[in-house]
Amino acid sequence: HSDLSERSRESWRAAAANTWALGVDGIMTFNLSADRGGRELARGLWREFGAPRNLIAKDKLYGIEHLQDDDYSFMFRSVPRAGRLPAPISKLTTVTRVLPVADDIPGLAGRIRRLRLRLYLDHFREPDKASVRLNGEKLAAISDQPQWLAADVPPHIMKKGANELAVTFESGASASWTLTLRSVELSVQYTDA
């Protein structure tokens, strides 16, 4: 149900940009190969990953990791699960997560064509109401497609680095009385220089 995939140039760029922002000396990929996404995709991304400056003002798709099906990491306790997805949200409660974004969105605001946040909420249906805040600012999130909420994000509210996302299940008749936040995607689309 998500646009985050191994064939998404934008999601690979976002992962690489976030990795460079952590202060690494270089990037090595796993499962980015010609047989998975195509030779041209792999070669193009490897060229872009060579230096952080290569990723500036390139379209990206940031997200929060979803670990539900990652049983191997869980068994060996090699990957921490705290702060990842999925996240259950009971009625009248709020779940917060950190959305890491390496781009200096406010600094590049003049080059941004569109900045859009999308959330996938299992069991979400009319007349359910959920509110979304990003760095304390309430967003005008509307139903985008079944179980998805989407909102355009003003660039000035973004931070380079950790951005706090808060989702509140305000009211509704959800059969389970609990929603599950499964996907968080921030699409950053730039104009050509």
Describe the structure.
With 193 residues, the protein is an alpha+beta fold. It contains four helices and ten strands. The strands form two sheets. Strands 1, 2, 4, 7, 8 and 10 form a six-stranded antiparallel beta sheet that branches. A hairpin with a 2-residue loop joins β7 and β8. It is globular and about 50 Å long. The two termini are 32 Å apart.
Order of helices and strands: HHHEHEEEEEEEEE
Main sheet overview:
6 strands, antiparallel
Q: What gross morphology would you assign?
A: globular
Instruction: Report the uncertain regions.
Output: none
Helix content: 10-25%
| Strand proportion | 35-45%
Mean pLDDT: 87
Total helical elements? 4
Total beta-strand segments: 10
SSE inventory with pairings:
Elements: H1 9-21, H2 34-37, H3 39-49, E1 60-63, H4 71-76, E2 87-90, E3 94-101, E4 112-122, E5 129-134, E6 137-139, E7 142-145, E8 148-152, E9 161-171, E10 178-190
Antiparallel strand pairs: 1-10, 2-10, 3-9, 4-8, 4-10, 5-6, 5-9, 7-8
Helix pairs in contact: 1-3
Summarize the structure.
The chain has helices at 9-21, 34-37, 39-49, 71-76; strands at residues 60-63, 87-90, 94-101, 112-122, 129-134, 137-139, 142-145, 148-152, 161-171, 178-190.
Features:
10 strands; 193 residues; alpha+beta; 6-stranded antiparallel sheet
